[in-house]
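Good morning,

Attaching, inline, the backbone tokens for the sequence recovery test we're adding to the shared suite. The designed sequence is right after.
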């Protein structure tokens, strides 16, 4: 064995080779140990964390009231079984549920969890309290992919590397024995096997295979692994059952397995799919597919299959129930938004199209539309029609209809029950209603019908028809039940609208009966007016034009606080009171004072009856226009100010003291006297014209001014312009508008004389009046006028004081007025046979059409009117 021999040389060479190999192996092993320790720690921590995260019951435990109680024992058992240093389960906020040291449970996890919350696996090397370690964080995902928790496993590199270092003596011993070539070959094979198994030992590989096999055969989802070329590499038992694959399916191309085209193309494409539903024979399969080469793996894809047939059926029934509940909820909030019968019927038709039917028609009795009780013999009228298209050949809105008893609508009206006509082409009773139109409807594509009576208690208000054309399936019994409930909800709103219409009509009728039906005849003013009741309820607005003595005219506009029949009745009482007080020829301030006392008494009487006072006051504006002097005296009680349009079109709001509203009492009212040029327009109105919820009265007055500036010259044009500019779509309050254009009684129609305090002057008065009547062409009134003035002037000279004044006016009638300074009013009486006087006023009353007394600040005026033919 000397070195010189061939054998020695070979031996020496072998020794050198072995020594070199041993040294190289030792050095390489030391370096490899350090690297492999880290790699093995990473792989083991990831495997343990992923296995624990995907273990059965982990998601349920995270949702339990006390996750620590469930997970801590399992985590510790898994930690001891896998040889890792810790297994930590935490929530998505990083709060620990488990830890080998119980005192650290509930505290925040140390490490980076952000990628794991996004569904990725995180591994990192850190310096922990137990030394250098490698830890992995794996997400716990719900079936829908949502991260519901995190699992972390960690192991120190010392524990991993220790096992590797214990193998070093064995390698040295084997090398020392001289099995250099065998050791080298074993080392090479081991290193190659190590790379292929990723550091797993035989036990770990056996356990992984057992778990893999158990999962594939026991999981309730089908699993398919398809290679990059489209060949089927693996199909578990559930996939074999769901797809009904042949026994030799593995290894064949997926396009040749007899699967439906869309399913086979999806598996062969390898594209990403999430819960795609595919019909395979009689099953609905939800397919999820992901590629396998995302992290450097082999080309191909993994697909999971879930049978959703029963789930889809249950989901469909639940969706149908949800849609029906949604329709009924929408009916509760969308039908009956107004108290209008026709609009409520339209809301029902619009709601049901197209969610329930393609066309909906609502037919109501004529009396219901007018607010009355429905009658069986009265015809129906189409109140609403809604559909997906407008050219459907059904009866149009407004058409009066009499349904034959054989039609579904007729049977519904007669029995009070819904009727289902699933196939209109075969419904002879429906076709008998109108043979020509029925054929047109069927030809148009309408094929199914449900009719439901509109019932409110025992009353049948009409019938609702639901028509179907687009959906090929006919209506069924369940849909008829839904239609019946939908109509029942709408019937309550329609009946409420009917009752409101009836009461509103009664109130409006009462209110209009209390308002002036025509304007009185007079020459002082050109009058135009408008009165619009509120849509929401009747109010107490009113106006009046009242002729007074001396060719004067009184204008009055008022507003009762509140709405309803009580306000309308109170308005009638006040209007009557104004008529009575006007007969006394009182000035505006005194008349408002009397109205104030009356409203106060009304409030007291109402409060005494039931403890409440529904009338809390009223507003009023009273104006007297005198065409002789062209003056207007105005007083108002809490009412909006009048507007005045001059002959040149300029608009102003005269300063008229407001005064308190009627009924408050305690304060006097003030008057304002305006001198109006002929052709001026006085505009009186109620607050409904200038006030609303969105703007205050100042804005309303300015808008009224702008409208008046553009108004025409006539009162009618003024009314029209103002309402076009200021009238809301649905007035919330009554609106009364009165426009009066002034006229003047010229000097040629007025005659005046001062009468001396001497009975002899009566004759001169008669002579002057006779001449004036001759000028006016009223000779036929000379005799009666002389008698009237003789009596009135004689009484004034005898009883009325020192100042006597006579005025004769030619207007629509001949007016004789005698002014004196006395405030004592004469009274008409029957004179006895023995009386020397007392017959003069009786004679005046017989000759004149009207006569009376009015008071002035300086005395009184006795007047008499005679008709002019």
């Amino acid at each position: 064995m000397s070195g010189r021999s061939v054998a020695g040389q070979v031996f020496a060479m072998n020794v050198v080779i072995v020594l070199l190999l041993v040294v190289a192996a030792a050095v390489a092993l030391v370096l490899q140990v350090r690297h492999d320790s880290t790699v093995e720690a990473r792989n083991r921590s990831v495997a343990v964390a992923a296995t624990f995260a995907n273990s059965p019951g982990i998601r349920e435990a995270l949702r339990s009231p006390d996750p620590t109680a469930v997970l801590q024992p399992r985590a510790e058992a898994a930690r001891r079984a896998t040889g890792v240093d810790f297994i930590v389960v935490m929530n998505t906020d990083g709060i620990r549920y488990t830890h080998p040291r119980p005192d650290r449970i509930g505290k925040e996890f140390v490490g980076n969890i952000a990628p794991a919350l996004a569904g990725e696996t995180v591994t990192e090397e850190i310096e922990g309290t137990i030394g250098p370690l490698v830890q992995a964080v794996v997400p716990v995902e719900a079936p829908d992919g949502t991260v519901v928790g995190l699992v972390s496993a960690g192991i120190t590199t010392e524990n991993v590397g220790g096992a590797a270092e214990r193998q070093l003596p064995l390698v040295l011993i084997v090398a020392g024995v001289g099995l250099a070539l065998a050791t080298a070959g074993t080392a090479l094979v081991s290193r190659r096997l190590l790379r292929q198994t990723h550091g797993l030992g035989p036990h770990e590989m056996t356990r992984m295979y057992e778990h893999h096999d158990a999962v594939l055969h026991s999981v309730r989802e089908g699993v398919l692994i398809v290679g990059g070329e489209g060949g089927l590499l693996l199909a578990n038992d559930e996939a074999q059952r769901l797809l009904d694959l042949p026994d030799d399916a593995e290894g064949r191309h997926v396009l040749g397995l007899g699967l439906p085209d869309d399913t086979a193309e999806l598996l062969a494409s390898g594209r990403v799919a999430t819960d795609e539903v595919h019909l395979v024979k009689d099953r609905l399969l939800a397919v999820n597919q992901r590629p396998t080469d995302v992290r450097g793996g082999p080309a191909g894809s993994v697909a999971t299959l879930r049978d959703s047939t029963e789930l889809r059926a249950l989901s469909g029934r639940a969706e149908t129930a949800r849609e029906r509940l949604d329709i009924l909820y929408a009916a509760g909030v969308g039908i009956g938004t107004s108290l209008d019968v026709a609009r409520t019927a339209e809301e029902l038709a619009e709601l049901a199209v197209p969610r329930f039917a393609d066309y909906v028609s609502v037919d109501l009795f004529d009396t219901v539309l007018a607010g009355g009780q429905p009658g069986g013999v009265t015809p129906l009228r189409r109140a609403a029609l809604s559909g997906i298209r407008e050219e459907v050949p059904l009866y149009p809105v407004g058409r009066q209809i009499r349904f034959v008893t054989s039609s579904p609508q007729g049977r519904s009206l007669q029995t009070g029950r819904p009727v289902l006509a699933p196939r209109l082409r075969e419904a002879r009773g429906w076709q008998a209603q109108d043979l020509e139109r029925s054929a047109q409807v069927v030809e148009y594509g309408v094929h199914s019908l449900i009719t439901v009576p509109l019932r409110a208690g025992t009353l049948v208000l009409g019938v609702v028809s639901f028509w179907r054309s687009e959906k090929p399936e006919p209506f069924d019994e369940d849909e008829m039940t839904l239609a019946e409930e939908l109509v029942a909800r709408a019937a309550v709103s329609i009946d409420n609208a009917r009752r409101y219409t009836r009461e509103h009509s009664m109130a409006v009728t009462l209110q209009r009966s209390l308002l002036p039906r025509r304007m009185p005849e007079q020459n002082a003013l050109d009058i135009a007016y408008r009165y619009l009741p509120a849509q929401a309820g009747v109010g107490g607005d009113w106006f009046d034009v009242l002729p007074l003595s001396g060719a004067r005219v009184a204008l009055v506009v008022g507003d009762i606080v509140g709405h309803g029949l009580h306000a309308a009745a109170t308005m009638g009482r006040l209007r009557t009171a104004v008529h009575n007080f006007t007969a006394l020829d009182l000035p505006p301030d005194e008349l408002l004072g009397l109205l104030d006392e009356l409203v106060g008494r009304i409030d007291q009487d109402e409060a005494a009856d039931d403890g409440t006072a529904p009338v809390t006051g009223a507003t009023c504006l009273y104006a007297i226009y005198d065409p002789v002097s062209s003056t207007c005296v105005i007083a108002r009680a809490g009412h909006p100010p009048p507007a005045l349009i001059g002959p040149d079109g300029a608009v102003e709001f005269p300063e008229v003291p407001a005064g308190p509203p009627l009924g408050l009492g305690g304060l006097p009212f003030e008057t304002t006297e305006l001198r109006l040029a002929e052709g001026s327009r006085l505009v009186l109105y109620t607050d409904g014209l200038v006030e609303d919820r969105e703007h205050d009265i100042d804005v309303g007055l300015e808008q009224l001014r702008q409208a008046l500036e553009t108004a025409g010259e006539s009162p009618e044009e003024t009314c029209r312009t103002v309402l076009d500019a200021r009238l809301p779509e649905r007035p919330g309050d009554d609106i009364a508008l009165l426009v009066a254009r002034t006229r003047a009684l010229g000097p040629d129609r007025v005659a005046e004389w001062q009468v001396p305090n001497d009975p002899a002057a009566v004759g001169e008065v008669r002579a002057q009046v006779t001449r004036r009547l001759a000028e006016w062409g009223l000779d036929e009134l000379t005799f009666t006028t002389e008698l009237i003035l003789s009596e009135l002037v004689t009484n004034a000279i005898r009883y009325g004081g020192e100042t006597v004044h006579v005025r004769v006016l030619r207007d629509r009638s001949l007016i004789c007025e005698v002014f004196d300074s006395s405030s004592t009013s004469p009274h008409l009486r029957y004179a006895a046979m023995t009386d020397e006087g007392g017959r003069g006023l009786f004679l005046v009353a017989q000759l004149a059409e009207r006569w009376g007394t009015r008071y002035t600040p300086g005395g009184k005026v006795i007047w008499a009117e005679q008709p002019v033919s």
